[in-house]
């Protein structure tokens, strides 16, 4: 695929790095020569310096031959104009744009071929908000990912000392919860992936990814760790785009306090939010946190635009007694550094965003992609089409499918029915198949499995 990425910020650079490793033909456009040089030194990509909305720059970048344009500059307006130009001048097949301003997003009629020609809108703030909401609804989880419109979830938890399954092989799981169907998709131990088998023994501190119907998630989780009480009191540190969206989503079900350092923004938040308490102050102010009884807070979310402020305030909140702390961190190197220490959950916005972009880039009928463990692993939902003569998966038992190393099928969704995958499960046409890849090197092979041969047409 020839892919044109406009904007070499965090999202653009992350997507370029991911796709360059997968042998796609990538051209990256940005005004910042330094950013482009750094990326070109590291990855096999072409770069063009210039303003992404200028026809002459798009011409130089090869827009005429692009299969897909991904506009992720820091300006909504630049992204919109660039997509429109690619549509008008080059009839680019797929145009994806990052749009952050809520005023644009609430007017869907703006985005069509008759108006502004954008095929897919991406709002990172909304994706991160949804992600945090799912974590809040599952207090034990490190990660919660939806598939098949929420019928199935993939959940990551850390196994704890004394847990019912710790020290026991995976085949014991069925004895513990005989009425609940689930499958362990992967285990990460000391950062390394272990492909789970019946005899695999779970150890304390293992990061366990399991898949189950959404209604069964809690009972499976109870086998791997002590179930925590639901959250009640939540402090959001930072009232930016993510802070205000999260407060709006949560304030009717939880006790929400939001800390904001800018007085004008704090005034705006207090007018916009109906039940949340808005506090003017520094998110890393010890006195303020003690005053607000941080030791009684169930969850502290550090959501400012400053990684250092987020890390320090989350660590301080944890030291002062907050039950759990979550920190938004943009720099990938920081995420690995802090997540194993004081901070319970370190969330990378670009990793949350990348999955929704990849779903539109992957070949085969792939409808959902989730990037896991800082992009090292991937979970995806693919639709099986065709019949036994035209498809490499339809009409075959799972143990007959030639899956690449480190790849497993966790579940199949057939209409409204969730089928947890076993070796003798047969894939049918139009099944939604949920796969887990511990090694993204094999993504192309998985895509090929779900491409239909010519006999089908």
TrEMBL record:
Domain RCK C-terminal: 142-226, 367-452
InterPro entries: K_uptake_TrkA (IPR006036), NAD(P)-bd_dom_sf (IPR036291), RCK_C (IPR006037), RCK_C_sf (IPR036721), RCK_N (IPR003148), Trk_Ktr_HKT_K-transport (IPR050721)
MF terms (GO), sorted A to Z: potassium ion transmembrane transporter activity
Coiled coil: none
Domain (RCK N-terminal): residue spans on this chain: 1-122, 231-347
Keyword annotations from UniProtKB, A to Z: Ion transport, NAD, Potassium, Potassium transport, Transport
GO cellular component: plasma membrane
PROSITE patterns documented for this protein: RCK_C, RCK_N
Superkingdom to which the source organism belongs: Bacteria
Protein name stated in the entry: Trk system potassium uptake protein TrkA
Source organism phylogeny: Bacteria, Pseudomonadati, Pseudomonadota, Gammaproteobacteria, Thiotrichales
């Amino acid at each position: 695929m020839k892919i044109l990425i406009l904007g070499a910020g965090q999202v653009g650079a992350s997507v370029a790095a991911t796709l360059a490793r997968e042998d796609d033909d990538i051209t990256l456009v940005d005004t910042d020569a330094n950013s482009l040089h750094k990326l070109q030194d590291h990855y096999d990509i072409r770069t063009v310096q210039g303003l992404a909305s200028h026809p002459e720059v798009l011409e130089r970048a090869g827009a005429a031959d692009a299969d897909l344009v991904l506009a992720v500059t820091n300006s909504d307006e630049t992204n919109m104009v660039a997509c429109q130009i690619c549509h008008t001048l080059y009839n680019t097949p797929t145009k994806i744009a990052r749009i952050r301003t809520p005023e644009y997003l609430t007017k869907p009629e703006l985005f069509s071929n008759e108006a502004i020609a954008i095929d897919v809108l991406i709002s990172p703030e909304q994706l991160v908000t949804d992600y945090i909401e799912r974590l809040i609804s599952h207090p034990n989880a490190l990660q919660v990912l939806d598939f098949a419109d929420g019928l199935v979830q993939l959940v990551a938890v850390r196994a704890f000392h004394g847990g019912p399954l710790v020290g026991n092989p995976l085949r014991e799981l069925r004895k513990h919860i005989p009425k609940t169907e689930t499958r362990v998709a992967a285990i990460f131990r000391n950062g390394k992936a272990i492909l789970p088998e019946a005899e695999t023994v779970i150890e304390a501190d293992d990061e366990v990814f399991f898949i189950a119907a959404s209604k069964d998630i809690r009972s499976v989780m109870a086998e791997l760790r002590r179930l925590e009480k639901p959250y009640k009191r939540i402090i959001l540190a930072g009232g930016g785009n993510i802070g205000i969206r999260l407060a709006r989503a949560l304030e009717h079900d939880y006790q929400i306090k939001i800390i904001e350092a800018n007085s004008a923004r704090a005034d705006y938040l207090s007018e916009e939010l109906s039940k949340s308490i808005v506090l003017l102050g520094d998110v890393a102010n010890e006195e303020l946190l003690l005053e607000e009884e941080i030791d009684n807070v169930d969850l502290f979310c550090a959501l400012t635009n400053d990684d250092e402020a987020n890390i320090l305030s989350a660590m301080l909140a944890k030291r002062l007694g907050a039950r759990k702390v979550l920190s938004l961190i943009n720099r990938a190197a920081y995420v690995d550094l802090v997540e194993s220490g004081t901070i319970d959950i370190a969330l990378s916005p670009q990793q949350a965003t990348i999955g929704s972009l990849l779903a539109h880039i992957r070949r085969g009928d792939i409808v959902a992609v989730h990037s896991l463990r800082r992009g090292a692993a991937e979970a995806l939902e693919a639709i099986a089409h065709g019949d036994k003569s035209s498809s490499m998966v339809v009409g075959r038992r799972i143990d007959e499918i030639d899956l690449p190393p480190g790849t497993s099928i966790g579940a199949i969704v057939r209409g409204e029915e969730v089928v947890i995958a076993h070796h003798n499960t047969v894939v049918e046409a139009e099944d939604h198949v949920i796969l887990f890849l511990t090694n993204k090197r094999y993504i192309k092979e998985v895509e090929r499995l779900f491409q239909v041969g010519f006999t089908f047409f």
